[in-house]
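Handout, page 2. Input:
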Amino acid sequence: MAARAPLIERYRERLPVGAATPVVSLGEGSTPLLAAPRLSARLGCEIWLKWEGSNPTGSYKDRGMTVAVSKALEEGARAVICASTGNTAASAAAYAARAGIIAVVLQPRGAVAGGKLAQTRALGARLLEVDGSFDDALAAARELASRGTHTLVNSLNPYRREGQKTAVFEILEELGGTPNAFYLPYGGGGNTASYAQGLAELGVSARIVSAQAADRRHTLASAIRIGEPAHVAAVTAAGADVATVSDEQIVAAWRALAREEGVFCEPSSAAGLAALEADPPRGARVVLTITGHGLKDPDAAAAYAPPPVVVAADPDAIAEAAR
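Output:
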């Protein structure tokens, strides 16, 4: 069986890499684009799901990290650093391990889902919990990077966005055209900026809807729990429509993705669907980017999914309970 080509090799001509760039890959990209027939019928539009939870560490971050870490290695870096609410941490840890360099991860204390903490620890990162917010952690990471001791691999690193734009290339290739709109979660805004960049490079346009939590600093959707988005200017420049959704809307959309389409994602990934459900564009073709796997945040499943039912080991009792 032929191995899947690394993302960098698939899109080498569209990425800032050369013959001397060492490709650090875990088989990222080429993620499924799934039709969503039940959601489409209910909301009156043609819905597709870009299932980024199937990337190696379970989130879309791997697209950018393969490029960022490859370039860091090419430039002689011996350590990378990031601030993270979880997904960037796991991705940075995995790709740094693959490259044989150190990953330093700064996470806001008590604000990161358990699945992501477990991933990051298992992958060997130097995990430091900052007594402060994500914004505090990012400020510290940027300061250390400015001293030249570490390479910053947050989305402020332009190579991250170069890798993330490839999701747009894949979507258009698979659809055979441009959808009317893209819906995606809005935490820091880096992915919105990346999608806009990808569309611009292809010379096409589409509406981008970026869905943020109503309470950015305390939302249950921990992956987008960012008080001060780093890419506000880029989101504005992209002409994206920013939709605000409540935690209740996010949970309802999260349940709908699982129960109606069989896609188990982390709550933040459902923010785009929450925005779509609030104002569906009838008859349009839309793509929802589902950014992270549900196993990233098992506590959410415990809190918001129905509990198991205890039943006697009796066929009749089981049949009755299963109705």
